[in-house]
Automatic annotation (TrEMBL):
SUPFAM superfamilies: NAD(P)-binding Rossmann-fold domains (SSF51735). It comes from the Bacteria. The gene is fabG. Belongs to the short-chain dehydrogenases/reductases (SDR) family. InterPro entries: KR_dom, NAD(P)-bd_dom_sf, Sc_DH/Rdtase_CS, SDR_fam. PANTHER family: 3-OXOACYL-[ACYL-CARRIER-PROTEIN] REDUCTASE, SHORT-CHAIN DEHYDROGENASES/REDUCTASES FAMILY MEMBER. Residues 6-185 form the Ketoreductase domain. GO terms for molecular function: 3-oxoacyl-[acyl-carrier-protein] reductase (NADPH) activity. It comes from Sporosarcina gallistercoris. This is 3-oxoacyl-ACP reductase FabG.
């Protein structure tokens, strides 16, 4: 039990990496609030975890919508009384080569992946500041550090996550709150199912380790940064990519 008694909020927790993180955090003793805009998947996961004896609940919110996020934060603080850990995991892609990328697609990805992280961090910080302790973990990507063809919007958003992480590590470190990012490589979730098979084979050539990542590889990195073992780690970007050449 590495995060026993802690309350964790996981955004984008209904599916993919976030859903795996919600389960692992529950198994490690945390109370888990899942935020997602997919109500059906979020409710189903929370009910399943509840049926297994875990303390998990679902809160519907679009992270890019400040009003939604503040409302969810109010309900979560009411239900759990505090928030110790925030995992800013929700994220989307809307890929296109730059000349074909609509400005609306550029803005939308930044709204979710950047403003969403800002909204959630701002909403859950007061509880951590009051406690004089807290953990904020946000999800970047190898696309944020290395760039990726067809992902000008996504790469920009994930680089911004690193900038915000390093700023907040300096702003909130003195208040006992650590802020770190995890940078996944290619992880087997819905997100990469849109990539053509030929491209997948090319990507595998770039990963020194002989497989793609699994959701639990990233969820375990979130867990480490949320655990007591990581209490002096602040402002880092933890790469979980099998050593992918960038
Ligand atoms: P996913 O698409 O499987 O799951 C994302 C979850 O976020 C879904 O439950 C979705 O409903 C939710 N979500 C999306 N937009 C939302 C919004 N506006 N408000 C609330 N919830 C929203 O994605 P996956 O693969 O689990 O990705 C999780 C994080 O990891 C994302 O930030 C992604 O950018 C990042 N990542 C994923 C990689 C991969 O290979 N799968 C690689 C690098 C980073």
């Amino acid at each position: 039990m590495r995060i026993s008694g802690k309350t964790a909020v996981i955004t984008g927790g209904a599916k993919g990496i976030g859903a795996t993180a919600a389960r692992i955090f529950c198994e490690q003793g945390a109370q888990v609030a899942i935020i997602d805009f997919d109500e059906q998947a979020g409710e189903a996961l929370a009910q399943q975890l509840h049926a297994e004896g875990f303390d998990a609940a679902f809160f519907k919110a679009d992270v890019s919508n400040e009003t939604d996020v503040n409302h969810a934060a109010l309900l979560i603080n009411e239900q759990f009384g505090k928030v110790d850990i925030l995992v800013n995991n929700a994220g989307i892609t809307l890929d296109a080569m730059t000349l074909k990328m609509e400005t609306s697609a550029f803005r939308h990805v930044l709204d979710v992946n950047v403003t969403g992280v800002f909204n959630c961090t701002k909403a859950f910080l007061p509880s951590m500041v009051e406690a004089g302790a807290g953990r904020i973990i946000s999800t970047s990507s190898i696309a944020g550090t290395g760039g990726n063809v067809g992902q000008a919007n996504y790469s920009a958003s994930k680089a911004a996550v690193i900038g915000m992480t390093k700023t907040w590590a300096k702003e909130f470190g003195p208040k006992g709150i650590t802020v770190n990012a995890v940078s996944p490589g290619f992880i087997e979730t819905e997100m990469i199912k849109t990539i053509p098979e030929k491209v997948i084979a090319q990507i595998q050539q770039l990963i020194p380790y002989p497989r793609f990542g699994k959701p639990e590889d990233v969820a375990n990195a979130y867990l480490f940064l949320a655990s007591d073992e990581a209490s002096f780690i602040n402002g880092i970007v933890l790469e979980v990519d099998g050593g992918m050449l960038k």
